[in-house]
Write a structure and sequence with these properties.
95 residues; mainly alpha; 3 helices; flat
Length: 95
């Protein structure tokens, strides 16, 4: 059985794969064209495939190379950023 040795890389691989698959899914209705006459779906599809390939590479790497574990989420810094952005947005609207 395969064991994940680098949870951070494994999480990144899943994120890359989700973004790549979503790009391919949402761009499926666009005309692809070819290399000499690119359609509107050519670049998004190629880019999504590259992102998915990066996800596969990082995922395989996470199974082979030891890495750090995923740390617990620290809520206080996130809360301060959210409050600061909310206060800042409120000041911009009132000006």
């Amino acid at each position: 059985m395969l064991q994940v040795k680098s949870p951070q890389d494994f999480g990144a691989a899943i994120l890359f794969l989700v973004i790549g698959i979503a790009g391919i899914y949402f761009g499926r209705d666009l005309a692809f064209g070819d290399a000499s006459k690119m359609g509107p779906g050519f670049f998004p599809t190629i880019l999504s495939c590259i992102i998915g390939l990066i996800g596969v590479i990082v995922g395989l790497r996470s199974l082979a190379i030891e890495g750090p574990p995923i740390e617990a989420v620290k809520l206080r810094p996130l809360l301060f950023i959210l409050v600061a952005a909310s206060v800042s947005a409120g000041e911009v609207r009132s000006a």
